[in-house]
Amino acid sequence: EKNTTSDAALSDTTALPVGISEPLVTDLYTADPSAHVFDGKIYIYPSHDIESGIPEDDLGSHFDMKDYHVYSMESVDGPVIDNGVALDIKDVPWAGRQMWAPDAASKDGKYYLYFPVKDKNDVFGIGVAVSDTPTGPFQAEPAPIEGSFSIDPAVFQDEDGTFYMYFGGIWGGQLQKWRTGTYDPEGELPGKDEPALLPKIARLADDMKSFAEAPRDVQILDAEGNLFLEGNNEQRFFEAAWVHKYNGKYYFSYSTGDTHNIAYAIGDNPYGPFTYQGLVLKPVLGWTNHHSIVEFQGKWYLFYHDSSLSGGRTFLRSIKMTELTYNEDGTIQTIDAYVQ
Ligand code: FUB
């Protein structure tokens, strides 16, 4: 069942696994960390988890977040600074509920916060808000990005300065309701023997507030060049896209959702196709698994979350970071967050 933790597990906190990393933030619950290096500092753009009292369901209704905080770090061992509320849902004119996993980008001295939120008809779209500083506060645009839908934006800047947004998520993320190109409230996932739904990519326009092209599918292929089937939930895309570049190759990483992995695939250009390689991160405590990968001062780091601080409550998560290591051939050494 999606996003639930049994009461038995909650009542026995001694049964919780010991993590390799401590939470970066302990006074709020935080999740879905998108990390970037701007002007030599790490900035983290997470979701801000709260106890909403909304019952857990397969659509993630209990993830009813209402604002974002941005965190900054001058060094990996230094303090993690909470820069306060960067954007509140009440300041997003079109928003209804559920501020989910955000990301950010910087261009020409401006900073852009990209965020998925449901509109007043309960349909997810992706908003953008602008600031003169990486920490905000951010001023939301009056409407979602035209042509955007679903959840989990991740904005990647290529070395030539071009920005691309990856997005999408199935189940509560509503990607299955957009299969015809417009929103269909009755939209269903493909059958188990059909190709799984794919994440989306769109190049951002110069204004950073609109798409320069219609979103298209990002193909994730197996070693034989085939798309994963919907029934292959160990490997197919679910949500939480992220892209980084290492040694000239493009790494597309993502959550497999109901099997709780962070998997990755490698390609030769931002559009893919990407060929599946394996796991970046094994399942963590809590239902969701969501991450980012960033280089800082010559080392690579994985930012992720788990529910250890809340004793396993799946909608009260905490962001963490750990070093990530590549093998000689460019593959990533799989991380188990609970093996020291
Ligand atoms: O935090 C809410 C949702 O849970 C995110 O958008 C998903 O990626 C999952 O982590």
From TrEMBL:
Give the residues annotated as coiled coil: none
Q: Which InterPro entries match?
A: Glyco_hydro_43, Glyco_hydro_beta-prop_sf, Glycosyl_Hydrlase_43_Enz
Name the UniProt record assigns to this protein: Glycoside hydrolase family 43 protein
Q: Which interval of the chain is the signal sequence?
A: none
Tell me yes or no: is Hydrolase among this UniProt entry's keywords: yes
Name the source organism. Answer: Marinoscillum luteum
Keywords of the record, alphabetical order, are: Carbohydrate metabolism, Glycosidase, Hydrolase, Polysaccharide degradation, Xylan degradation
The similarity comment for this entry is: Belongs to the glycosyl hydrolase 43 family.
Q: Which GO terms describe its molecular function?
A: hydrolase activity
Q: Which domain of life is it from?
A: Bacteria
A UniProt-annotated Pfam family: Glyco_hydro_43
